[in-house]
## 1
Amino acid sequence: MKIVIVIPTYNEVDNITRLIPVLFDEFKKMPHHDFHILVVDGNSPDGTGQKVLEMQSSYPNLHLLPEEKKAGLGAAYICGFRHAMGKMQADVLVEMDADFQHDPKDIPRLIQAVEEGYDYVLGSRFIKGGSIPKEWSFQRKFLSFGGSMFTRVVLGIFNVHDFSTGFKASRVKGFVDKLDLDSVLSKGFAYKQDLLYRMYKQGAKIKEIPIAFALRDRGDSKMEKNNFMDSLKVVIKIRLRESQNFFRFIVVGFAGLFTDLGLFNILRTLVFSSGEPEISARYSSAISGLVAMTVTYILNNYWSFSDRKVTSITRLLRNAPLYYISSYIPILFRSWFTGYSVATFGNTFLVANTAFFIGVVIGLVWNFTVYSRIIWRKTK
Ligand SMILES: Nc1nc2c(ncn2[C@@H]2O[C@H](COP(=O)(O)OP(=O)(O)O)[C@@H](O)[C@H]2O)c(=O)[nH]1
Ligand SMILES: [Mg+2]
């Protein structure tokens, strides 16, 4: 496999000159792979780029991708990934810092997992065997670990423990080459969470291997003060975007409820007011229910599930009975369940309404599942 280690640098001249020889020594242990180093330099004033160019005479597999200016960690990686995939035809991309916080000796373990068939291998600090520097302040430890746990829960990716690690290997074919790198949500640190989520959605087989995250060797950290907030924003943005169908579905549900209630009362008091009250209520309820269902059907099609909307009128008409019937199933269930509950636990306000509420929640889950999986199922 052709493996490209992408290393962004900004003022890392002391580190990169020592890291490069160590890495090429490490590569010798895996002679069956074709290793390359791609340094993406943000036009460092300390001459990092120049130094890399000089070292190329000793290391033919050393490459430099100069940026016009420092444009953020995410921007540097995206730029490097494009170059490594396009110009260099890489099979595997490795992300790594220049400052020895990532141990070059861990590279064989990352690559081995890729050989085993994993598509996204993360050097993880928060699993058994992994660690962060004990010298870090409590606040930094807390933000790092807490941030990852928060991301884990909000994104619902429970097989990952370290969402902000900067040491990882990704398979290109079928994975990184399928991602739309133009739309990555951050030019800075938070590109990590977004890329991870995209790889996950792409169906990558993910593996974490434990790493000991060291202290920066020389030079200063380029960590921006707002990294944490940047990541938080990106994670929440992803969650909202992914849940958009669901939020809209809930809003449409309320619109349906108001239509139903409003129309029921208008019909009952104004249209069928002259008839028998019992018959009037029955007709009004049947009509308002049907109209409300039609309204929600249309709103769901053109709004909640607008990303998958059905445009052909024949298909829309053909789907309608399925929509009405499937939406009616939880109502039937709810009716049976409330009846059963008052008969069993007593005919009180609390019992009736608790049962009704449970029925509503089950109905929500049922409807959303049927709508998103069947009626407005995603077609690739
Ligand atoms: N090209 C480029 N490299 C950067 C930029 N920001 C950080 N780096 C490099 O990315 C790596 C990670 O940054 P670092 O300061 O070590 O972050 P920390 O480990 O979180 O403190 C280092 O090799 C930096 O030199 C940037 O804006 N552009
Ligand atoms: Mg670092």
## 2
Amino acid sequence: MKNKETLLSKLSDCVLEMEDELTADVAKQYIDAGYPAIDGILDGLVDGMQRAAKLFEEEEYFIPELLVCSESMYNGLNVLKPHLDKNNFSKSKKIVLGVVEGDTHDIGKNLVKIMLEAAGYELIDMGRNVPCQSFVDKIAETNADVLAMSTLMSSTMSSMQKVIELLKEQNLRDSVKVIIGGAPISLSFSKKIGADGYSPNAVEAVKLIDELLSV
Ligand code: B12
């Protein structure tokens, strides 16, 4: 049986090296060996995606490579996700989640969704490039407890502020907690625009929401 570290680095390499189908096979070997799905996702698949992102910044990988890397990552996720330790108690709390207007980066948002679902929350996923007013309409329609917005681009960060302003104008701000995240987001930006919180990754996002809702 392969040891955990070997399989984790193989998972990471599979994503980086665009091993589309092999990623799922290695993920199966990892699960069959009895290792925890959460580590396989974060220390294997996400690690590979982060290494790919670094090569993109260094202009060694370009958009087509990144797309195949993300496809490999999703192939592995499909295998690992059903094995995440689920909190079997539904928390009876609803979260509206989406990527803001102008931005189509959704890998991080999808990871946040997976972790929150595993923690027992009900997720309403609005996808990516979501118009500001659509977030507000969805909060009004669903009475959700939390609005979670993601962006990876500095040019679209201002949409988050716009959504908060719209919530205020439509008297909905006090009925929903707003959290934000994504690579260019910081705690100080979150405070500046009047959000209730920020977290740097998907695991911390669960803790943040648990705290905000006192569950
Ligand atoms: C993959 C990628 C793409 C893929 C996206 C595929 C997809 N479906 O998502 C493709 C190739 C399509 C793409 C396209 C573009 N991209 Co791009 N892309 C990236 C790249 C390399 C990695 C992003 C990623 O997936 N990271 C891995 C995930 C796991 O991390 P993450 O998203 O940060 O998410 C984690 C946390 O941030 C957090 N989180 C995320 N969301 C949320 C939300 C909440 C509520 C919380 C609490 C936490 C949280 O939790 C997540 C998991 O732990 C980044 C570079 C980088 N280093 O980030 C550039 C980058 C984001 N892209 C960039 C750009 C400019 C573009 C393009 C305009 C084209 C171009 N010229 O390159 C287009 C965008 C078109 C558009 N309008 O949307 C720039 C943005 C620059 C900026 N600061 O504004 C970056 C930074 C690259 C660069 N340095 O130039 N891109």
